[in-house]
Amino acid sequence: MEPLLDIRDLSVEFSTPRGQVKALRKVDLAVRPGRIVGIVGESGCGKSTLVSAVMGLLAGNARVTSGSIAFEGKELQGLSEEAWRDIRGRQLAMVFQDPMTSLNPVMSIATQMIDIQHRDSGTRADKLKKAISWLARVGIADPEQRIEDYPHRFSGGMRQRIAIAMALLVNPSLLIADEPTTALDVTLEAQIIHLIKQLRAEFDGAILFVSHNLGLIAEICDEVVVMYAGEVVEHADIRRLFHAPSHPYTQLLLTCDPARIESEERTLPTIGGTVPDLARLPRGCIFADRCPSVFERCRAEAPPTYTIADGHHVRCFLHADD
């Protein structure tokens, strides 16, 4: 199938007093209808910058320096604000990271869920009925009464459920979930993941799911994009990535997953070293200083992306002969 979202060679820079910070560099990503694609990586690897670029919500000091973002065959770069308003909330919807700040505190849930349907025909009563049905679908008890409440009367997990209901209310083609469980405890996190898995059967579109938690990615995604310091270093379907990781960074990420530790240890495994300064990039591979398999070529030039199997791509010289 043709990609619903097709990102090619995308690079984004931020202007800072220290110079240009190259937050994204030559990123390729495709999301096909009906698929859940996970984006995983350490904090600061560019996950949120990537989804902000897709939604047209980059900060004022950000600039797309190259590449294209095509959605349903239409280029998103250069759209007017009016054109963006037609796309956001209708074809593109997003669930943000912090459920405590994603709802308007001075408006009732009913008002907010009706307002988001402003493009749809129908009476206020029809829109209210639809909003109530979606609250019920995401597990809000007594939705007929609770819909008139204000956000402060809901817990963090319930607010995130409401945010998911609002995002799916207009049946978007692509739902972007930017670390939707980060601010929640493990019990609520499990509930939200269970909810997303349930809704997948009813939702017609695709999902782009951003997380630093490999366990969550394994639970709900069909394929995974691994990012490091603004680059996509590996892309594969979920089974292949977890059973045959090919980039040293992916291998180390999996080693650091507490769920994969089989014996009792006094310390958790970590990846040595630090993320490189994106304002002063190294000459060669971006992961060379932390890589246990580094060799001379890695420090001299940046590796291209190699295809090592159908749908499995990796940016590493170790696979130059595959």
Describe the structure in your own words.
This protein is an alpha/beta fold and 322 residues long. The chain has a single domain, classed as P-loop containing nucleotide triphosphate hydrolases (Rossmann fold, 3-Layer(aba) Sandwich), CATH 3.40.50.300. It is 30% helix and 24% strand. It has eleven helices and twelve strands. An eight-stranded mixed sheet has the order 6-7-8-3-9-10-12-11, with helices on both faces. Strands 2-1-4-5 form a four-stranded antiparallel sheet, covered by helices on one side. A hairpin with a 2-residue loop joins β4 (62-71) and β5 (74-75).
Measured distance between first and last alpha carbons: 27 Å
Which shape, going by the Cα principal axes? globular
DSSP, total strands = 12
Helix-strand category: alpha/beta
CATH class: Alpha Beta
**CATH architectural group:** 3-Layer(aba) Sandwich
Largest sheet entry: 8 strands, mixed
Number of helices: 11
Approximate strand percentage: 15-25%
Please write the string of helix (H) and strand (E) elements: EEEHEEHEHHHHEHEHEEHHHEE
Overall number of domains? 1
User: Can you give the mean pLDDT?
Assistant: 90
In CATH terms, what is the fold-level topology?
Rossmann fold
CATH superfamily: P-loop containing nucleotide triphosphate hydrolases
Helix content: 25-40%
CA-based gyration radius:
21 Å
Record the strand order, biggest sheet.
6-7-8-3-9-10-12-11
Low-confidence stretches: none
